[in-house]
Amino acid sequence: MSDTSRIAFERSGHTAIVRFNRPEKMNALDMATFAEILKIQQEIAADNTIRVVILTAAGDNFCAGLDVQGVMTDPNAVETLLSKPEDYQLAEAKALGNYVQQVVVGWQQLKVPVIASLNGYVFGGGLQIALGADFRIAHAECQLSVMEIRWGIIPDMGISVVAPSVIARDQLKLLAMTGDRISGTRALELGLVTQVEDSPEDAALTLAENLSYKNPQAVQSIKQLFNSENLSPSESLALEEHLQRQILFSPNQMEAVQANLQKRKPEFN
Fold first, then answer.
1. Residue 245: Cβ-neighbour burial (10 angstroms; 0-12, 13-18, 19+)
2. Strand, coil or helix: what is 89?
3. Residues near 46 by beta carbon (within 8 Å), at least 6 away in sequence
4. Cα separation of 113 and 186, whole Å?
5. Residue 1: is its pLDDT beyond 80?
6. Segment 62-112, tens digit of pLDDT
7. Alpha-carbon Rg of the chain, whole angstroms?
8. How far is it, in rounded angstroms, from Cα 17 to Cα 22?
9. Strand pairing partners for 123?
10. Could you give phi then psi for residue 219, rounded to 5 degrees?
């Protein structure tokens, strides 16, 4: 794995830990951070030994959003962010959206589950990145905001794809139109986060360990199944059957059965 001035990327067993590493700027997103996220997404996708990803941050804040002074004042930077990323290949999936949107939806394209650990400020682009994760574990007192309206713009990092499945559409529009801050506790009530914990990163590590001891083929298929929201009922049922047929009697599935019967930890390929 690799360390940069913007992102720290490390391994703990089968878990990849992606840590925003700009605490002196409240982990605000600049061009270097965007580029490193896209690189890391591709690195994770190419590593079949990774079973879970944790998104977290150094310091007291997950991410305060866009580094407006460093990005919005540069027309070339803005044009880059609104264009397709060059040479981006995430496993079999190419970039769905533009450069800045892929920073968010890329986490959804990964086959493995992604857990976001949220502390302090989770604003604007930082919140959208968190919404790209499959699970969000927040501190009760962290502050979340769809902040873009305060700068007179719309949230445009893929929020229209990743958010409607976790929060009611009217509540999402209200947050986006007002830019109001809400606490982790209120976010849980709205469905914006998965759970609230005193130590979100410890809870994320515990969940990651739990998931790493499940059949990785089944975990990945569950993510694929429930992320396929635009299918018709018949297509969804067909996908369920297709995924199950791939798993049944496979080596990992049989290992899950044997480990359960023998009351031991499984050893998956």
1. exposed
2. strand
3. 91
4. 24
5. no
6. 999 999 887 877 778 888 888 888 777 775 567 778 989 999 999 999 999
7. 19
8. 15
9. 145
10. -60, -45
- pLDDT of residue 163 exceeding 50: yes
Mean pLDDT across 1-19: 85
Mean pLDDT value across the chain: 93
- Altogether, the residues listed in the chain come to a count of 269
CB of 218 within 8 A of CB of 243? Answer: no
State the pLDDT at residue 2: 46
Query: Structure tokens of 169?
Result: 């559409």
pTM of the model: 0.93
The amino acid occupying position 190 is L
pLDDT of residue 241: 95
**Can you give the pLDDT at residue 4?**
56
> Residue 72 has what pLDDT?
73
Contact between 223 and 25 (Cβ < 8 Å): no
Beta-carbon contacts of 24 under 8 Å, excluding residues fewer than 6 positions away, are: 59
Dig out the tokens for 255 from the structure.
């290992």
Place of tokens 């002196």: 24
Residues 117 and 134: beta-carbon distance below 8 Å: no
Q: Which domains does the chain have, with CATH numbers?
A: 7-211 (3.90.226.10), 214-262 (1.10.12.10)
Determine the Cα–Cα distance for residues 269 and 45; give it in Å rounded to an integer: 17
Q: Which of 195, 156, 190, 193 is nearest to 176 (CA)?
A: 156
